[in-house]
Amino acid sequence: MALIKLLFRFSQKYPCQIALTLLLGLAGGLFNGVSTTLVAPILLNLFNQNIELKAVPPLIETIVAPFYNIPEPYRLNILLGAIVLAIVLKNLTAYGSSLVSVALARLLAADLRKAGLQMLLDVDLDFYSRVRVGDLIQKLGEETGRTASALKMALQMVVTAITVLIFLAILLSISWKLTLLSTILLVFLFLGNQYIIYRSKHFGNLLSDVSRQYSIALLEVLRGIRLVKATGNETEEFKHLERLVQEREKRNFQAQAHYLMMEPLNEVSSVIALILLIWLGQLFFVQDLQVFSAILLVYLLVLLRLLPMIGVLNRLRGQCASSSASINMVNSFLRLDDKPCMPNGSVPYHSLQQGICFDQVSFAYPANPEAMVLKDINLFLPQGTTLALVGESGVGKSTLADLLPRFYDPTSGVITIDGRDLREFDLQSLRQSMGIVCQDTFLFHDSVRNNIRYGRKDATEQEIIEAATLANAYEFIKNLPQGLDTVIGDRGVLLSGGQRQRLAIARALLQHPEILILDEATSGLDSLSERLVQSAIDNLRQHRTTLVIAHRLSTIQTADQIAVIASGQVVEIGTHDQLLQQNGFYAHLYAMQFLNSAEL
């Protein structure tokens, strides 16, 4: 059912290709049927038997009649020529149908992968907090690949089914009694195949499950390879992955073994069915043996051509059944109605004129709606000023910052820019107006140049150099082996922490953002790196509206406002000097940091 839904969903874009596939399949089936029925008069002619039209069913009579009045010396040659022509036309149309269906299958597979990619880009960050990256990679990779193959097989099944229906119609027109008998005999073949298909589906489900476990485990080992090596757990991790590989191959073998049973079962069953058909047919259905022989000859020829097609259908059904877990998984994966998606606004964002207001903002993560992370936050950030958020870890500072680019929306309350609800703005234009520099800087496995200009692919060489210079990054960039063209490794592993931060600042500078979000941008750096990064941040903050989250209070003393967050609430707000005079939480925190610095 899930396969039909996917096929219907993605095939609606290609009505012409589908119509052409079906039309060519129908033509191929008709030519195939004609070529098969013409064999009977050829054999009768070879054995010097007259073509007795009264002894054959109406359909065969219609096909054979044009050759009845042909003179005897020419009849055989014309019959042979007709059958060759029918076979040539059948193969040409079959080739055309296969060609179109393969092209259509490739389009559907590409659309399937694009839909998966688009879904991953459309969902909220909350979705990623609930899933494992390895699971997503498995679904978008192997499971989507198996589903794409199943879509291709479904198209092949449709084309093959057309020919099967044509041949069944021929069989019914020849003898409905023999066809009824054939159907009864073939029911047993169907039941045998159905059991194999059920078992293939079972092992296919197990294969998908263990493949998912392997992908997740492998990704975690690769992402944590430093920890694995540091703790000497290489052997243990290898054994764990080896066990999953062996389990995966075992399930794959079991699925293949059941699938391979189909062909010998179908062949043996077909031979038995043919023998029983001949014996029972002459025993129960026919009084005139000569008439029966003429009918049976054509009937058996058609049936012999039909049985392999039924075998193909069963084989394709078995393959689709073994992929059923992947199909169901991908079908669920592509659904958006059960995933959190950020609704987009329609108003393009242009510029900030007055300021940003947090009005009675409260927030709880959707995964835990009872635990309020933020409670009744009231803040106003005037245009061109800096607001710093301080407080202990886990009190909601980063969560509050995540609400501004609408990574999440408030559970209650509203955030406005110049009096307009943030949710009314177009997401892309809103986020492009913001520059975000976090403690956990992400860099691509790419060149320095491409990392800096990410988000602004049209940036000139001079603009890239200027941004790097303002970020205090150009000096170390010039000393890299290939300068701006140096590839910096996965997540910038070939650079130091301070260098990665300065590249992130250069990237933000290049975007010319109106609004800046700096989340612990200097945390975890040594003194020299911190000074360089802080200098770059000061360059970045000039003439911009800035929201800063800082652990080291020395970096935010010049902020226009400092808001102290505790238990998800604003407990103090003011300038550095004002908060010291209040002798509250901020003053206590400042004294503790100053004391620690003095002791060092």
UniProtKB/TrEMBL annotation:
<dbReference type="InterPro" id="IPR027417">
    <property type="entry name" value="P-loop_NTPase"/>
</dbReference>
<feature type="transmembrane region" description="Helical">
    <location>
        <begin position="20"/>
        <end position="44"/>
    </location>
</feature>
<dbReference type="GO" id="GO:0005524">
    <property type="term" value="F:ATP binding"/>
</dbReference>
<protein>
    <submittedName>
        <fullName>ABC transporter related</fullName>
    </submittedName>
</protein>
<dbReference type="Pfam" id="PF00005">
    <property type="entry name" value="ABC_tran"/>
</dbReference>
<feature type="transmembrane region" description="Helical">
    <location>
        <begin position="291"/>
        <end position="313"/>
    </location>
</feature>
<keyword id="KW-0547">Nucleotide-binding</keyword>
<feature type="transmembrane region" description="Helical">
    <location>
        <begin position="268"/>
        <end position="285"/>
    </location>
</feature>
<dbReference type="InterPro" id="IPR039421">
    <property type="entry name" value="Type_1_exporter"/>
</dbReference>
<dbReference type="InterPro" id="IPR036640">
    <property type="entry name" value="ABC1_TM_sf"/>
</dbReference>
<dbReference type="InterPro" id="IPR003593">
    <property type="entry name" value="AAA+_ATPase"/>
</dbReference>
<keyword id="KW-0067">ATP-binding</keyword>
<dbReference type="GO" id="GO:0005886">
    <property type="term" value="C:plasma membrane"/>
</dbReference>
<dbReference type="InterPro" id="IPR011527">
    <property type="entry name" value="ABC1_TM_dom"/>
</dbReference>
<feature type="transmembrane region" description="Helical">
    <location>
        <begin position="78"/>
        <end position="109"/>
    </location>
</feature>
<keyword id="KW-1133">Transmembrane helix</keyword>
<dbReference type="InterPro" id="IPR017871">
    <property type="entry name" value="ABC_transporter-like_CS"/>
</dbReference>
<feature type="domain" description="ABC transmembrane type-1">
    <location>
        <begin position="19"/>
        <end position="318"/>
    </location>
</feature>
<keyword id="KW-0472">Membrane</keyword>
<dbReference type="Pfam" id="PF00664">
    <property type="entry name" value="ABC_membrane"/>
</dbReference>
<dbReference type="GO" id="GO:0016887">
    <property type="term" value="F:ATP hydrolysis activity"/>
</dbReference>
<keyword id="KW-0812">Transmembrane</keyword>
<dbReference type="GO" id="GO:0015421">
    <property type="term" value="F:ABC-type oligopeptide transporter activity"/>
</dbReference>
<feature type="transmembrane region" description="Helical">
    <location>
        <begin position="180"/>
        <end position="198"/>
    </location>
</feature>
<feature type="domain" description="ABC transporter">
    <location>
        <begin position="356"/>
        <end position="592"/>
    </location>
</feature>
<dbReference type="InterPro" id="IPR003439">
    <property type="entry name" value="ABC_transporter-like_ATP-bd"/>
</dbReference>
<feature type="transmembrane region" description="Helical">
    <location>
        <begin position="154"/>
        <end position="174"/>
    </location>
</feature>
